[in-house]
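User: Fold this; C-alpha cells only.

Assistant: Input:
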Amino acid sequence: MSRILIEIISGQTMPVYIASQIVKPDRIACFVSKAVSNQLKYITNSIKTLEQFDEIEIDAFDFDAIYNTLEMYVDEYTEKDDEIIVNFTGGTKIQSIGIFQKAMELGLKAIYINSERNEYLTFQKGKKTKVEKYSVTIDPVTYLKLSGHELYPPEKMNLTKKNMEFLEVMKTHFSKFHQFLRNKKPNRLLLGSIIALESKDPKIKLIHKEHIFFEDSFPNVAKSNFNKIIYGAGFWLEYLSNEILKSINFFDKTYLNLRIKWKTFEISNKYKNEIDIIAMKETTPFLFECKTRKVENSDIDKLIYLRNEYFGRYSKLFIIALEKPTTLIEKMKDAKVEFILFSNLEEYFKNKNFTENPNIV
C-alpha cells in the first residue's frame, strides 16, 4: 500500500510544499497544465525527500476534462489499497472545483491548505471532517528554489578568539566606537585609537578615555584581508544582531550574510546581492538590513525589490540601525519596512505580535 498525494500545480508552489510536509506521501502526482510547467520543475527540485513524482497533464479551464483526469489517474496509476489524498488548494478555480467534486464522488480524502491560519481542512463524502493546525518549516535555499531562484553557498567564517573579543566589546560599547569604525576619525575621547587595515602593518586599537578596550595586529596579508571584514564598519552589527535574533526563541533558524543569484546583469549593477540576515519563522521569511550609517533610499529599495522579485508579498522587511532615521519614515511605512533600533532589538520581538501569518509565496 502506498500513500499518494495528488497536487494541482499552479503559480503558487508553497501550498504544494506544505501539503507534502503534512501528508508525507510515498508518491506525489502532479496535475499540471502547460502554462505552469516551470513550477513543476521548481517543486521537484525542492522536495528532495521524495524521488517519485507522477506528471499528469491537465486542462486549465475545461471542467469535463479536468473532472475526468482524476478518475483516469486513479484507474490507471493506483492500486485498490492505496491511500489517496487530494490537495485542491492550487490550480485555477475550475480545476479546484472539478478535482474536488470528483474526489468526493470517488470517496477520496481531500485537503485544503489555509495558510493564513496555519491550518488545513480535511473533506470526505462532500463534508468538512477536520480542521487541524500544522507546523511546517523551510530553509531559505528551499524557499527560493520553489520559485526558481538560487542562493550561493554560504561562506564559512572561522572567527578567532581575538575576533570574538572585539565583537563582545562592540556589543557593550558600540556607542563609543561605531562612528570611529565607520569614518576612522577619532575624537578627543578616542585619542590613540587606530584602525589600519590597508597598511603594511595592519592593526586595530580601540581606546576610550585612555582605557584600551581592544587591540589586535596581524602582519599576515591574507589574515588582514579576512579582518577587513571582521573589523570593518558593518560586520559587527550584522553578527550581533543575528546572535540576538537567535537567542530570543522566536525564529526557527537565522542565516547570516547570504548572497542571492540575481536574474540579470543589470540588476546585479543596481543592487548588492548580499542579504545581511534572513530569519525563518515556519514558512515566513524575515529579511534584515543592518546599517551603522544613516538609512538611505537605496536600503529601502533593495528590500522592496527582494520582496517583490524573490521572497513574495508576505515576507517581512526590517532595517536595524543605531540611530532613528529623521527622514524616509513615511516611505518605510508605505513599503511596510519596519525600523528597529539595535539597542531595542531583543525587546522588539518579545513584545511584537505578528497576527498576519503569511505562508503563500
